[in-house]
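Narrative progress, year one. The postdoctoral researcher (J.K.) led the effort to move from monomer predictions toward full complexes, under supervision of the PI. The following entry was the first complex the group processed end to end, covering 1529 residues in total.
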Amino acid sequence: MQEELIRRAKELLGDGTVVRVMGWRKGDLSFNPEPALFETEESLAEFVYDGFCGANLSKYMIKLSKLEGKTLVFLKPCDTYSFNQLVKEHRVDREKAYIIGVGCDGSLDVDAMKEKGAKGIQEITEDGDTVTVRAIYGDKTFDREDVILERCRACKGGAHMVYDELASNADEEKPARDGRFSLVEKIEVMDPKERFAFWQNELSRCIRCNACRNVCPACSCIKCVFDNDRYDTAQKANADTFEEQMFHIIRAFHVAGRCTDCGECSRVCPEHIPLHLLNRKFIKDINTFYGDYQAGADTDSRAPLTNFTTEDVEPSIVQERG
Amino acid sequence: MQRIGVFVCHCGTNIAGTVDVKRVVEAVKKEPGVVYAEDYQYMCSEAGQQKIADAVKNEHLTGIVICSCSPRMHEGTFRKAAEKAGLNPYLVEIANIREQCSWIHKDMEEGTEKAVILARAAIAKVMLNAPLQPGESRVVKRALVIGGGIAGIQTALDIADAGYEVDIVEKTPSIGGRMSQLDKTFPTLDCSSCILTPKMGEVNAHEKINIYTYSEVEKVSGFVGDFSVDIRKKARYVDMDKCTGCGLCQEKCPSRKTPNEFNRGLNTRPAIYTPFAQAVPNVPVIDTEACIKFKTGKCGVCSKVCAAGAIDYTQKDEIITREYGAIVVATGFDTINLDKFDEYYYNQSKDVITALELERLMNAAGPTGGNVVRLSNGEHPKNIVFIQCVGSRDVTCRGKSYCSKICCMYTAKQAMLLKDHYPDVDVHVFYIDVRTPGKNFDEFYRRAVEEYDVDYIKGQVGKVSEAENGRLLVQGVDLIDNRQIKMEADLVVLATAIEPNKDVRKIATMLTASIDNNNFLTEAHPKLRPVESPTAGIFLSGVCQGPKDIPETVAQAGAAAIKVVGLLAKDKLVTNPCTAQSNPLFCNGCSACEKVCPYGAISYEEQQVMDGGVRENRRVAVVNSALCQGCGACTVACPSGAMDLKGFSNRQILAEVDAICR
Amino acid sequence: MSIEAKNENKEFKPLIVAFCCNWCSYAGADLAGSSRLAYPADVKIIRVPCSCRVNPLFILRAFQKGADGVILCGCHPGDCHYSTGNYYARRRMTLLFSMLDYLGVENGRTRVEWVSAAEGVKFSQTMNEFVEKIYSLGENVRLEDLRCKKN
Amino acid sequence: MSADAKLAQQIREISGVDTRKCMKCGRCSASCPAYNEMDIRPHQFVSYVQNGNVEALMNSKSIWKCLSCFACVERCPRDVKPAKVIEAVRLSVIRQRGENFLSPDEIPALLDDETPQQLLASAYRKYRK
Amino acid sequence: MTYSYFPGCTLKNKAKDLDFYARACAKALGFQLEEIPEWQCCGAVYPLASDEIATKLSSVRALKDAKAKGQDLVTVCSACHHVIKRVNDDMANVEEIRTKVNNYMSDEEPYNGETKVLHYLEVLRDVVGFDAIKEKVVNPLKGRKIGAYYGCMLLRPSVTMQFDDPENPSIIEDFIRAIGAEPVVYPMRNECCGGYISLKDKPMAANMVDQIMDSAAWKGAQELITACPLCMYNLRNNGTKEGLPVTYFTELLAEALGIKEEVQA
């Protein structure tokens, strides 16, 4: 697959369709490829596409669409929702992107492998549904299904929402999976004290590294409200703890109705906080209260929070449903 | 460095009675930024305002806080005082320690503590206030009057006589309204159409007045001085220019079974009709639901008989968009539905009628040619019972909590006229109170009793039913004689409560004019601004604002007109400076703000932005401050905080929250 | 147990922030005042031009700074002075309240009520009810504790 | 508070009726089917309680004539519920004075073959506690 | 559809007809009445005073039983219906009464007026439908002129009872039409018959009964039907003259459905 993508990238660079390529490059370990920009055919030797290329490249297109010429970008099915959402918000220029939709069998989660006993990982190879780990303290073989990210278990399906061409592994027919809200529901049925304890346990670990904010394609403000001293919310300007304490709730609210549920926030969190469960709660509520809505499925529908009907539910529904 | 002055008003004992104003002064003096504080008997008085002016000069104040009544009361007064003293009027904040503190708390300790906190919040806010400059907007020299009854007619005439263009939009095929349905008017008993018809003619002929009948307001945008209104001119299917008003089409129309609205359904009318003989314009309309041609495609009699060739079955509704500087609502009233009052037998018997129906029966142009008869058998009634307050002063879900105001007088009028025309009838009136405030009103009512022998019974009716001889059986009570009455009657007349026209809610929503629980439009101030809506540029005329009789309606119509003239006479209006503004440095250009703006005040443009030394072209939001009304919806839609509202900025509101939660 | 029994907690003095839109609810509060319809002094009103001006952030800030309840009052749906502001406020608050509930911040501490300028009685009643509710809930779970584990 | 005022207050509490809401229109008395059997009439009950004259009501035969048919409640435009006031006075008489309009001894003589249980139950409830 | 059924004391005794016919007709019309076990008398009079708690308990017990089964509660007797419906309304809307009753009963799960209370006639109108009844009628009561006697308790106070227009009801007339007879509307059909005072004050009751009978007869009614055992007793026994015959509506329903003999047997 990887070879096919490299060959196609070289062709597009060669015939001048694009002037640069946004993709993934080998990292220092076999399981941490990183997003990278390739400007020459030679540099593409470092290009990689495997189960660890979970990173969503759409956000990079904000900056890249400001540059001269087209950029080739590889988007997995779920990444295309983010791209569309950015088009809707006028943040990326559709005309500046050449999109190759690549297929995805679910992104691998190295932490899951570690949890399942792989210690001192040296190399990981994929072969269909099997993932083999060569490690210092004993090799391991896993079913792919057991070591993919949580977000992929609730995959939105194989279809690309936007593309110029599809790679041969793209499977537009691949069905969506169920159970997207099962974890949210688990939290919902707790009593309030349990819920508070659950979130306290999670959120207290946050080290405010901003990785979630930086990776999130919806969190793409030129200047974050928390860095905006005109708002009196930025901790730096106002010596209190508001930002520190409210960051995640406000972040979730700001992306409500815009978050495509790509799951990058949770993937990059060094403290493994399930941040996407905040966003999914909003998605679930929006679907329940205002009808099903999938951010990024199109580029022209009105987002739920900039829309209304005169018959909307009253906020008291929150108390009434108990 | 901010220098804030705080002024605490006693408002006589209104505030000082429950708030220890001296302690408030001492407490606020300790607040950072406050350099001056004092209390005074009446801050809004000349002397109080002078104190503000002195302090601004002597203490070089950069902002002031007045702890007093609601800002809705005197914010304007204090802003003007500050301006006179050389301080930008928007550097004034009010802490509402009367309506929201002293008047609702009884305990001095509690009241004082809360007053201090409210003062602190205002101080925290004023520290962040910025001087604001109001902008200017244009005034379109044309007024719109919605409703063509006596209220709308009078308002339009008065505005037009002052030299301004006026359009009247009337929903029905003719102007005239309720007054055209009345027979005689109290307390002078002159004929209603005799005094109304000349006014209708005057409106029709006035070169400054343009009438859209059979038309409705469909959409309103804009703001005071500069409204844009879409008017739907419904298809009449009769060419207004060609029609001569001969009436032949109405005579020949074979579809004659539609209840006649003008006669309150007491008889029927043809499918092509003018509501009444003196209609203005005297051009009929075709009711497509009744018209055989429209229903089956066959007929066309009207077209055949029309010598002028005015019938045009292909006419379509037309949308006219016009600009106005002011809008007057004069949508009038209707009587309430009596379905929930079956004890009065109204829906069961033809001989139980509303007072408005009786007007039509008494009118020479009415369905019985002015003969008052029992509709069940055509006989003259011998015994007539009037029941007052049917649905009025009724706080249950059946009725209206208010007094309909006109019923006492029209009942006296109708009773008197009946006795006058038919000296042999007995007339009884069951009443709770007889309310006759007004010039020559009580004298009028007493004439009914003393000269015409109308029997006024203090008490009410419990039930009207059928008597064995086919008459009506009225069971009531006489509270003075302490006796239950069972009386046979031939005709029962119900003084049915009135309510605002059903369309008023829709219209008020379009105009963003506030409306009360009874669907009456709210005035800007119940005493001091009775003909203005709180929404600038919207004025109220007639019963849409509250029950009133004809003289009062005409007086209010004139008052509304002079307010409109006062507005239209201005060349420019000063606009509210508390508008939104977007900081291009923070703006993502995402369009969220534009989507929630009700005024279309936000647009986007490519701007060159210098950010951290880098020059960049960005798509950024721009607010048109002439259109922006300052609601703030955009500020919340904006994730980055680029959009903010002057006068109610994020920092200001957060400062208030912090001060209260300290 | 007495059949008259009801929970009462006299010690606790709640702090309640009420955001009121300038056109309807603030005027409704004024009417409550001029009609002398009492409600507890625990309620402090902040005037905003429209319910749609209230950023969820303001509400979170109030809770973070120690408020025990926050209520937002605006014009009735359909009656917004700015036509549509309260419809947006309604969606925003519905989602915010649901999220707070999800985080285990007891629901019932937040409320939205539509109060017209003519509803002085409703304003006063609403505030009385809300204060009573907050009394029955007692002191708030401190939102800031979400970030610091206490054991 | 005088004894009369206290009694009136008690009637207001038992009935749950705010007598101040009455606007003296008389629609209750106009509707009452037992009006002619009563010495003090439904609208007067409301007024008497408002004026603190409960004693007269307690001695009135009207309290045994009210049929609890709710015609007065149904048609009252002010939601005053005169039937509840009358019931409260009746209950006060029964509770405070132990007075019975119906004594158990006289019941057998009043019965016939068809007297439904409902009538007995209601008679007991209406006339004594 | 199965309903919780509250027959009430009179239906177990003097008004057995009303009960038997109601059950048999329900079966014929395709719904079940499941008698609430160990029901207690509703008290026959709705406790009007706001401080009466104990007298509301039997109604609440019945309501709770229906709630536990997830069934609507059906009554035939007008008085039981009146009492139970109003108590239910108190439990739903009057906090003081709800608190006191729940404290008194001290059950785990408080009752807050969740049960829907229906009169048998409402089931016929809203669930079965009069049109459906018409189709099942095998023995239409052709030519019979029947006056509906509503009385007070089904209709008033209408805010709570929500049964029909209190001043101009039509449900029983529609019922009469459904069973093939001709309804006769007369002015006194929703006036009180004086049932409550009929034990102690026969002359007053007599006067009221006479007025009703006269009114119905004048309008051409040949017989009356009612849903209330007390009205039935009073109308039948306490007038001064030979009045019209009075029957329970369920009896005529059974007759029209052709199951009357079966029930009598």
